[in-house]
Amino acid sequence: MDRRGLLGLGAGLAMQPAVARTAPGEVVVDPRRAPGTVGTIAEALAGGATVIRLAPGTFVEKLTIATRGVTVIGSGPASVVSYGAYAGLRKADGSNTGTSGSATITVAAPDVTFRNLTIRNSYDYIGAKRDNAGNGAQAVALLIGREADRCTVEDCALEGYQDTLYIQPRARITGCRIVGGVDFIFGGGAVWFDRCSIVTRFVPNTDSLGYIAAPSTPAAQEFGLVFSHCRIGREPGVPDHSVWLGRPWRAGGNMSLLGQAAFLNCWMDGHIRHEGWTWMGYKGPEGDQRKLTPEEARMFEFGSAGPGAGPVSATRKALDAASAKRFTRANVLGGWR
Questions:
Q1: Beta strands at 289-292 and 280-283: parallel, antiparallel or unpaired
Q2: Which residue, among 5, 148, 163, 16, has the nearest Cα to 78 in the 3D structure?
């Protein structure tokens, strides 16, 4: 990994002392329940904590954060919040969990911040593929819901396979490592990804390894998923020319959605396909099967480098310099500082 790829992953994921003198509203969570701590994040949230500091350890919890302004700070990558739900999981009433219900952490309040931790969906995606049980394999690590405007995720690792990160409102994701395979960064939010490492996972016995972004941006919204100075990489074993930059998602056949995504000044490894973007199917208003193509949607690049930086084409559109200037953090986040 080059120097730019390491930015934000060194200092940000470096070990920080987790158990420190706490201020009012702060709680330290330690799975060993050391003196002065609680044992689970759920306990800290139930107790009204606004700053939650995690000791090293694995927290097997499925959480919803519904309190405004909560900050969760880990001790680095060794602070892991992990759960293994998936969309096809049956609930007690016989219904499926669904994609949104599969999330390890769901954010349902504004101004929530995560720093220096790993958020993982541990569902056995590879085992399901091997056993032909992959239907309902969407398994979200972090869901930033519609009520969760202005969410910040800094120097974290987000890990899954299909549908790792689901974002619906405005969010800033900086210095993070985001790992997945199929549509693993998706949603209708206006999101600024800054200096992140975006990593496609290896899945055995698969020729096409999937899609990075699946934006479902409202057509009236100028910006969607915007990646600035990110490194687009892969795990060992992922073949060359096997991964799409993404595909536009018209969720539920909603005709008011017209996906927007852009990669700005990003380095791309050779696993990215020359065509860049591809289509995604949906049902039209009459129930007919249709395709939303990259030619129709708003999928762009500017300043791509590396072996995956393919030629400009009808499906791989480049922004000119004047248009690229519109894609700033301030514009994408709509004035949120």
A1: antiparallel
A2: 16
Cα separation of the two ends of the chain? 31
Gap between the Cα atoms of 191 and 333, Å rounded: 7
**Does residue 247 contact residue 208 with C-beta atoms inside 8 Å?**
no
Residue 40 lies in a domain: no
Does this model's pTM top 0.85? My answer is yes
CATH number, domain containing residue 158: 2.160.20.10
Report H helices in the chain.
3-6, 41-46, 98-101, 125-130, 321-324, 329-332
Instruction: Give the integer Cα–Cα distance in Å for 192 and 171.
Output: 7
The Cα 140–Cα 168 span in angstroms is: 13
16-25, 80-89, 134-143, 184-193: which has the minimum mean pLDDT?
A: 16-25
Q: Quick one: CA dihedral 309, 313, 315, 320, positive or negative?
A: positive
For residue 24, name the pLDDT band (cuts at 50, 70, 90): confident
CA 313 – CA 163 distance, rounded (Å)? 27
**Assigned domain for 168 exists:** yes
**Cα separation, 6 vs 14, whole angstroms:** 12
- Amino acid present at 92: A
- Which residues participate in catalysis according to the annotation? 163, 183
Residue 90 pairs in a beta bridge with 96
Q: Structure tokens of 11? A: 């200092």
Q: H/E element holding 183?
A: strand 182-187
Kindly indicate the confidence band of residue 316, based on its pLDDT and cuts at 50, 70 and 90: very high
Domain count for the chain: 1
Domain membership of residue 42 (yes or no) is no
pLDDT at 337: 78
* Nearest-angstrom CA–CA distance, 244 and 67: 37
